[in-house]
Design brief:
By secondary structure, the chain is mainly alpha-helical. It is built from three helices and three strands; from the N terminus they run αβαββα.
Length: about 110
Amino acid sequence: SPDRSLQRRRRRLDELKKYLWENYEYLRDFFTRHLPALPVTPLEATYLVWVDCRTLKRPTTEIARQLLEEEHVWINEGEMYAGEGFLRINIACPRKTLAEGLERIRKVVG
């Protein structure tokens, strides 16, 4: 029935939102423990997280390029979105992938 289908979709959406929130918490905790000089901004109804890299005193375009070339991690630099000094990380992925990517990021900026 249409009502059951809608209920299943709502449950699935709730599960997805919970998983994304847990990924955000994982990322935020990772940065707090391992990269405390790089604050993570509060999540704003999306699966894209901003990390403040201004303390590195390096252009984020350079950081993003280095991450891609050396660690095969593709993230967006803030310049694309008028946010110089910030990197944008997509957390809509399996936790294992997120954890591996964060370790790779730590190799470059830690």
